[in-house]
Amino acid sequence: MGRYVIRRLGQMVVVLFGATVILFCCLFVLPGDPVGSLGGDKARDPAVVEQLRERYGLNDPLPVQYGNFVKNLAQGDLGEDYTQRRPVTEVLGPKLVNTAQLALAAIVLDIAIGLLAGLIAALFRYSFWDVLITLLTTMAVGFPSFVIGMVLQKVFVIQLEWVPLISDGTMKSLILPAFTLAILDAALVARLMRGTMLEVLRADYVKTAVAKGLPRRTVLLKHVMRNSIIPVVTYLGISFGSLLGGALITEAIFNWDGIGLALVQAVQQQNNPIIIGVVSFGVGVFVLLNLIVDLLYAVLDPRIRLA
Amino acid sequence: MTELTKSTSVAGDATAPAKGANAEAEPAIARVTQWGEIRHRFLANKLAVVGLGLVLLLFLTALFAPLLAPHDPYAQDLTNTLQDPGSGHLLGTDALGRDQLSRIIYGTRIAVVIGLASIFLACLIGIVIGALAGYFGRATDSVLMRIADVFFAFPLLIGAIVIIIVMGRGIMPVIISLAIFSWPTVSRLLRSSILSVREADYVLAARALGADTRRIIVRHIIPNSIAAVMAYAAFSVGGAIVAEASLSFLGVGVSPEVPEWGNMLAAAKDFMGVKDFLWTYPSIAIVLTVLGFVFVGDGLRDALDPKLR
């Protein structure tokens, strides 16, 4: 186990290194000049431009810039953003809280809807409810988040006027974006849950449990549920990782002031420090959660030996 | 991720030889091939056939777009902006007076081209790298799989945006950016199915019969591993079309004047609640398209491994 963790941490470092190199190369062969767009439409004084390039270290050779970038990243210092000239961490901090709120709400909905639907479908296989759930979960995969978001917005904001159009940061305005994010994952969780439960229900240890006369409730809770939940935990962990990296579409539709929206705006403004901040955060969280999920897997299922 | 695990398990089982051919059957009777069985099971699945119908409809619309579209999708008519659906313009006109129906019809072309090309490219890269990793193993495997990990660690849209920052907006950049961050799944799939197929009894049998390595790979390992990749590919074309429309929706996909569904939705967002027909019809087009590919992908997966149902 200890050696496995060390090896996985090593792999994680390699992945993060590769990702930051890709990111760095992409953003610094960028055709546009970040400093050029700083002054707005006003004619730029070459001396000022030069001063700004010096200030942001844009005149150093690329390996030096990359070295500085990684050094600062390791210290949690992402530099200063180009438009507001505030530290990136300061700009992104509150947005990250918003994104985390949204991601957490979506995961809670995923668990509630997905587990319940999967459970019902598996326990009452081939019943009306199973067919309905299977059909709905298949359909849900075909609905892109922008379509779901716009339909929800039309129905609940414009027709029913239950929620304000512009999110005001309250719980009420969290509901629609959380649902938009959750529907696809909830459908996938339900399908996953149904599939694994059907497999577990056929397992020998479940037959044994039933045969030795355990109450149905005990068999379901202690034998079936515990074993069916493992793949779901894996899936949700990884999904949470990508949600934390910013739900671009959902945040754009609902004007949710998170890091996804910040990324889209930063791309339009060629605001490299923000882009680097959001993307490396997204990649880092994704990789870290993958590791945690793999370790959790071994804890939940002692049959799995990590080596 | 689910697709990955599901489809890898497909590969392990798809290797089972067709059970139809049993010893008592007379030699004269047409042989039941594995692919014949798969086709039969696929066509028996109603949802899969519906999906196939939707995909065919999409392809035909894309092919005959100039014949089907009543107007030029680019032609602006500033005296006829935001017309409600009705005579003259069946699905109304947008803020620049362009015919909605024609733009939706031409939108199928972008969807088909980007969806197919990006997944084709992803499969090409993924199959080569996955086959090399799975076949050579050891150091080659570790290095190639770490590279795959790096690209896999980028969420698709975020990674695609980074590439588009460099390449600029357009059809080609979108295709390339989607392929760059989609191939790791293909290579992981192919690699793991090669690993499981490599130890299969029939490979051992072929080796015992004296087949050389090249023949084993080309005739036995690849055909039996590729099934999982095919099911994944059919499914992912739908995903690529969603991703492509998402990029346009965010203003970083194909250029805004191009008739493309994500562009149409992005423009329609401002008229939410006022001119809802602007976003409902392109949405329907996207949903039907994606469902088509999802149904075909699901049908293929089930046909390849009937045990999974």
Structural summary, described in words:
Chain A: One of its GO terms (biological process) is transmembrane transport. The complex is a heterodimer of chains A (307) and B (309). Chain A is mainly α and 307 residues long. Chain A has helices at 2-28, 46-55, 62-74, 88-123, 128-141, 145-159, 171-201, 204-211, 216-244, 248-253, 259-269, 272-300. Chain A folds into two domains: 2-74, no CATH class; 92-300, MetI-like (MetI-like fold, Orthogonal Bundle). Helix content of chain A is 75%, strand content 0%. The longest helix of chain A has 36 residues, at 88-123. Chain A is flat, with a radius of gyration of 24 Å. The relative contact order of chain A is 0.13. Chain B has 309 residues and is mostly helical. Helix content of chain B is 70%, strand content 0%. Chain B has 13 helices and no strands. Chain B has helices spanning 2-14, 34-43, 46-63, 65-68, 100-136, 138-152, 156-167, 171-180, 183-198, 201-208, 213-249, 261-268, 277-304. In chain B, helix 3 packs across helix 5, helix 3 (46-63) packs across helix 13 (277-304) and helix 6 packs antiparallel against helix 9. The longest helix of chain B has 37 residues, at 100-136. Residues 1-25 of chain B have low confidence and may be disordered.
Taking the sheet with the most strands of chain B, its summary is:
none
Biggest beta sheet attributes of chain A: none
How many angstroms separate the termini of chain B?
19 Å
The CATH H-level superfamily of chain B is MetI-like
Which ranges of chain B are low-confidence, i.e. pLDDT below 50, for 5 or more consecutive residues?
1-25
Structural class of chain B: mainly alpha
- CATH class placement of the largest domain in chain A: Mainly Alpha
Number of separate strands of chain B: 0
